[in-house]
Structure formats: structure tokens, C-alpha cells
Amino acid sequence: MRFHGGIHPDYHKGATSGKKVEPLPPPELLYVPVSQHIGAPAEPLVAPGDKVALGQLIAKSEAQLTARIHAPVSGTVREIAPHPHPSGRRVQTIVIENDGLDTVNDEVRPCPKRPEDLTFDELVALARDAGIVGMGGAGFPAHIKLASARGKIDTLLINGAECEPYLTADHRLMLEAPESILFGADLLRRCFEMERVQICVEDNKPDAVAALQAHLADFPGAEVIALPSKYPQGSEKHIIKAVTGREVPSGALPADARCAVFNVDTCASLTRAFRKGLPVHKRIVTVSGGAVAQPKNLLCRIGTPFSELVAFCGGEQGPVGKVLMGGPMMGACQFDLAAPVIKTTSGLLLLPEEKPRPETHCIRCGRCVRACPMGLAPLHLKRSLDCGELDGAVRLGLRDCIECGCCAYVCPASLDLVARFRVGKQQAVRQQKEREAAASAEK
């Protein structure tokens, strides 16, 4: 089964796909933001001068939608203050001076239960206590996702598509730690009481497919599916469509299509939490893009400044036109390499300087319509927004835009459609809040 639209960009993965993951030595100072996820920021549980151990809980919130934050190293809290963040804002950050000892917190212990004895509630607590979020980049707290899908699904999918150009972090994880992915996937399968779990990999990664298949005998409920390569295959809605043929309704969640989707790195994080008791304190980051001297896949501690990654990869190579966290299609522009690695950092791209193509007028060629994987008409959306018809754009499906960039990629007029839709969605949210406030005031 295939999904509508999508594109086949130049993938540029060859620079790092064959390179093993290298551990990046943790720096002297680590900058750990209290916001690394969708939802409410965590609140610091430590103060300047406090000693912390690796894996120690250092920030949490009582809000329903949030994620816990843990110390990536042992050392001393130097300060808690606003600091550059990959979002482009300055975010409250716990700065830890690394003592170089990696003394592990006493509360970091393996799960005492056997996998087959773990209950669903215990799995939710495991994910919550380990601060696990959607490691593919979305950053949605895993324990909330688990709880919201309970009793609603009949299909469990593990996302190893990694369709963004340049990025190979998940690819290397599948090659170097396939058993940890399958073990975490099997924990999910058992707790959801499913007969099988399907690990989905694009067919441009045959070595990853083979590496996972080599361990299937130890996990009878697991199956590996090779999907045709097409961007944005890694989107939850589109991997569900490609595997099951089902469509997630507008404004709904995957559970409304009786499916749950988890990233391969999320599965590996569950395995570490179960086997070792370790929370999320490090992750694999692809450093690439053409303007870095030595592209690599690095295992980085959370809180490591981007400048450390670039320096470890030999520094910049030629003029840098753009720096992105994530891939070139959906990544976030970076303006300060002091921003740190966070839980959702899958890549750091330094792209060469290029002469920008000037925007021209829409020629109504329809390429954006054919490319849109959500079945939208981007040219009509843009026209509505340009005319100030926000309600009209919403009726045309503005909120369903996943900002994948397919429309902008194929546009011969070089229109920055994604930026326009992103602003429009923000305006729609503000408008909805204003209307709700006005309605509440009238009551």
C-alpha cells in the first residue's frame, strides 16, 4: 500500500550511512534545558551548588503533558538560567559542571521483573520515570502516548523509516543495536497484548532490514517490513497508510485508526530503562551536510553544545549557508551553536552557502497538489492566507498540514510555502483562543 503524494529527494546519506557511531566525550559544561518535549516545561529539583549523579532526576512537572529531565553526567550544578535552545528561544537551563567520573545515581537500577511479567501500568511508569519521548523528533512524551492508546489499537508499528535526507542515526542504531530495538518492541507488544509487532524500514536500507531479521528467532512476535522509499514515509500518518491502508482522520490521533507508532530509538530507550534503569541521557546524532569537514554519527550526552559536535567533526568546511537541527525538509534553523543537544536532536546539518533562488509568482502548475502527502491544495491555501481569509484556509485543511516541505521542494516559483503555512497555523490557534475567550466572557 502506498500513500498519496510524497517526493524522492536526493538523500545524501552516503557520507555517514557507512560510519559507525562514535562516542563524543562529554564536555566540561553541559546545558540541560527543562523543555525538551511537547508539553509543559519541567521544573528544576536542584539548585546551584548541588552535587548530581548520572541519571539523577533533576527536573519534573506535575502537569499531565510533560517529561522528566535527568542529569547526563555527574558533577555540580553551576547555575540555572536562560540559555540558547534549539527552538531559537532562550530557555531555562540547568548548567552542570562535569566532574568526569560518571558516578551513577543510586536510584538507577534495572527493572526487577521479567519482560513477560511486566504490566501495562508498569511499562507506562517505566517510560515516564526514564523521561522517554518520541525520539524520532516529535518529542511527545512516551508514557502519555502509551496510556492514550491502551485498549484502542490492533496494530503496533515501529518506525525505522528515517526518510529525511542526510540523517542516518536510526540507520546506524538498527545496524549496531538491532537486538535492543527488538527487545523494546517486544516489551510494547506484550504490554499491549498484541500477537505481533511490525518494524518498518525503507527498502533503501537493506542492511538494516537484514540486521533486524537476523534476531527475529529470539522475538517470535516481531516482523520486519521493507517499505518503498518515499518521503515523508517516516510520518506517523503515512507509515500507517503504507502498512495498513488506513487513514488517520483529520485532527485525530493514530489510536483513532487503531494503530500505535513508536520510533526505533524510543524502543532502544525502553530497553535501556528496563535492563539498566538508565533514563534518557544521551542519543545518536548525525553531523553532516556538506559544510562540515568530517561527517559522523556521534553518541552525545544531552546538554552538549552543538559547537562541540562541530569541533569533533573537524570544524566547518567552506562557507556555511545554513545550520539545521534535524533534516533539511523539516529541521529547525539554528542561529547559535551554543544551543545544546536535546532528546529530539537526531541530526545537526551544516549546509553549504548557496545563491538563493528568487521567489516568483505561482504559475498554478499543480505540482504542489500532486506532491502533498496530506491531499491538500497548497496553492489555494496560500492564496487564502495572502487574501486574509484565515477561516477559508482552515476549511481547506490548513491544520492538517504536517509542514513536511514537499510542496516547497517541487515549487518552480521557489515559494516558501511551509513558512507561510506555519505562520497561518499559529494565527489560527490564536484566533481560536480569542474566540473561546470571547465566548466564555459572554457567559
SSE order? EEEEEEEEHHEHHEHEHEHEEHEEEHHHHH
Instruction: Catalogue the unreliable spans.
Output: none
CA gyration radius, whole angstroms: 22 Å
Q: How much helix is in the residues? A: 25-40%
Q: Report mean pLDDT, rounded to a whole number.
A: 95
Could you say what the CATH topology of the domain at 124-276 is called?
Rossmann fold
CATH homologous superfamily assignment of the domain at 124-276: NADH-ubiquinone oxidoreductase 51kDa subunit
User: In order across it, which strands form the biggest sheet?
Assistant: 1-14-13-17-15-16
Structural class: alpha/beta
Shape: globular
What fraction of residues sit in β-strands? 15-25%
CATH class of the domain at 124-276: Alpha Beta
Biggest sheet details: 6 strands, mixed
> Number of DSSP helices?
13
Number of strands: 17
The CATH architecture of the domain at 124-276 can be given as: 3-Layer(aba) Sandwich
